[in-house]
Design brief:
This protein is globular. The protein has helices at residues 22-31, 36-39, 44-48, 50-62, 66-91, 101-104, 121-136, 141-144, 149-175. Helix 1 crosses helix 5, helix 5 (66-91) packs antiparallel against helix 9 (149-175) and helix 7 (121-136) packs across helix 9. The protein is built from nine helices and no strands. The protein has one domain (22-175). The protein starts with 21 loop residues before the first helix and ends with a helix. By secondary structure, it is mainly alpha-helical.
Length: 177
């Protein structure tokens, strides 16, 4: 999984401060899931996606309309692109696994419209489904991850989140038929 081909950052080391400006340090902090991706003992993407659970719960509680949730999710996805691009540049590794903004900022996509406030167990189920689709990366997710910079980091997760949204709704309908 991840980038295939020569690593454009090969031989370079991360900056000592993980960014030379406050903006770059902020992007690394947000990009690594508020540092979770940097300190996770294993599976940094999974640990780094945990803030997405809280974000999805907050969106479900504060924005009950599905189309408004969808609009906010699109805005978060677009915001994740430059954050991931800057974090990648600071960490000096193409599609660095420690970068988790693509996971946590896009996490709510897979829960759009689900009744998370009435059925909080859906958060745990959604987490498992989302992580499974992120690992499996069904087509075209695997192919579009090779887009340059932040676009590639975010695009594969965007596609995977759409698959997870469909699966979450199918599971919810099946469990409550």
């Amino acid at each position: 999984m991840g980038w295939k081909g020569p690593d454009p950052y090969a031989g370079q080391t991360p900056e000592a401060t993980l960014g030379t400006t406050p903006w770059r340090r902020f992007c690394v902090w947000v990009g690594t899931g508020f540092g979770l991706g940097l300190v996770a003992p294993c599976a940094p993407g999974t640990f780094g996606s945990l803030p997405g659970v809280a974000l999805a719960a907050a969106l479900a509680a504060w924005v009950p309309c599905w189309w408004a949730q969808a609009a906010l999710c699109l805005a978060l996805a677009l915001l994740a692109v430059p954050v991931c691009a800057v974090a990648e540049d600071c960490l000096k590794k193409k599609d660095d696994g420690r970068i988790a903004a693509d996971e946590w900022m896009l996490y709510p996509i897979a829960t759009i419209g689900l009744p998370l406030t009435e059925e909080p167990w859906l958060l745990a189920l959604s987490f498992l489904v989302i992580r499974a689709f992120d690992v499996l990366k069904p087509p075209p997710a695997r192919q579009i991850q090779y887009l340059p910079g932040g676009w590639g980091i975010v695009a594969d997760d965007f596609a995977s989140q759409l698959y997870a949204l469909a699966a979450n709704w199918a599971l919810f309908a099946w469990l409550f038929r």
